[in-house]
Amino acid sequence: MEVKYLDSLYLDDFLTLFEKKMSSQNPLKLEQLSDGVIIPLIEKQGMAYAGVLNASSESVKSANFEPLNHLDGYGLSAEILEEINLDNLSFMEGSFIYLGRIRNHWGHFLMDSVSRLWPVLENENKNIEQAQFIYFGEEIKSQSIIRFFELLGINKTQLHYISRPTRFSQLTVPQAAFIPGKMVHEKFLLPFNQIIKQLQLPENQQPTKIYLSRAKLKGINEWGEPAIEKCFEKNGFQIIYPETLSLDEQIKWLQSADTIACLSGTLAHTLVFAKQATRLIVINKSYKRENYRQSGIDEIKKLQVTYIDSHISLAPVFAGGPFWIKKSPNLTRFIKDNQWLETEEFQDHRYRILFQMLGKIILLYVRIFRGSRKNPVKVINTYNLYQDKIKLSQLFNFYFPLIFKK
User: Fold this and answer.
1) Residues in the chain, pLDDT under 70
2) Which of 24, 90, 278, 327 can pair with 274 through a Cys bridge, CB separation 3.0 to 4.6 Å?
3) pLDDT score for 225
């Protein structure tokens, strides 16, 4: 991992996470339950609760999902169980495999929702077409997610969504092979490797360099990526807009590339479909670089990663921005060190972007506090955001002068 193109500000936080070794060789557990009960998603006071009970109404710990950021996880508490009437449950006859929570967000689906598929993939003699799966959260609507399961030999009729507590005559609970920010097991890669094999990609493809762009996405709260995109295009990268491609096409591009570049965020998660030891260049769009889902992918795929800070961060914001991606001294040094072609000066709309960004930040904070009284989720999010209040002056003093640097 190359970090010499990162700003010194809060660098220690990033290194603490990304230098942590998460690969585990411990055998993964597989629990077989008779009369197991699934408690699907319950959201309360900004927390998500869900999980599995055995026939004795005891919580099955391996069914919980406990990543580094607890707000992205779920489990069961004694208080929640007291509110559930276990005498009035739905019932499903048959044998089912527990998948846990699924969301129709592609990047989060890849990281959080496929890590319990390993039992039906590790043995090629198993008849996956007969397996039945149970999930909760959001009913699957994403065509990419549907196609993902199809490529594994799983059709939509095998995926059963539940929205209320349900008892099952037979329930298999696999341990998650990936707990973002904590542990990753080699079996996590089984579904991705199986899909690559299923697509029968040609061997000895001409190596390519690709840049995965978000520039054509509508409704995103970002400025500046087209200029970064032009820089990579001038230096031999083919620009790919993943949302315009089918899943099969995306995977073929990822498999053909020897070097992949993208902005920080969930796009880099798709490198689970890339070749082992692919070179990855990540342009950070925020001072908050601790993408705890990505660190495990970097490790298990042995990615050769260069992280580059190239942004203006004037205040703490959430994952949805606003973000200002701007050619930085870090990116300039990277270009020179790699003997790349320099691009002409980016179109200079700095003052317009500055006022737009400040307006978005003010509006964000006003909405948070105005809605926090009615929405407990926003109360917790507001608290987390304002833990950064001590950094506000540091951020402004560090990044504001960079606005005026060429």
Assistant:
1) 124-125, 203-207, 344-348, 371-391, 406
2) 278
3) 92
- Token reading at 219: 């409704």
Residue 353 confidence (pLDDT): 83
Question: Token pair for residue 206?
Answer: 């001409």
pTM: 0.91
296-353 pLDDT per residue, tens? 999 999 999 999 999 998 888 878 888 999 889 999 999 999 999 887 655 567 778 8
Return the pLDDT at 384.
59
Give a three-class secondary structure readout of the chain: CEEEECCCCCHHHHHHHHCCCCEECCCCCEEEEEEEEEEEEEEECCEEEEEEECCCCCECHHHCECCCCHHHCEECCHHHHHCCCCCCCEEEEEEEEEEEEECCCHHHHHHHCCCCCHHHCCCCCCCHHHCCEEEEECCCCCHHHHHHHHHCCCCHHHEEECCCCEEEEEEEEECCCEECCCEEEHHHHHHHHHHHHHHCCCCCCCCEEEEECCCCCCCCCEECHHHHHHHHHHCCCEEECHHHCCHHHHHHHHHHEEEEEEECCCHHHHHHHCCCCCEEEEEECCCCCCCHHHHHHHHHCCCEEEEEECEECCCCCECCECEEECCCHHHHHHHHHCCCCCCCCCCCCHHHHHHHHHHHHHHHHHHHHHHCCCCHHHHHHHHHHHHHHHHHHHHHHHHHHHHHCC
Torsion of CA 191, 240, 281, 148, to 10 degrees: -10
Q: What angle do CA 62, 20, 277 make, to 5 degrees?
A: 95
Contact 63, 51 (CB under 8 A): yes
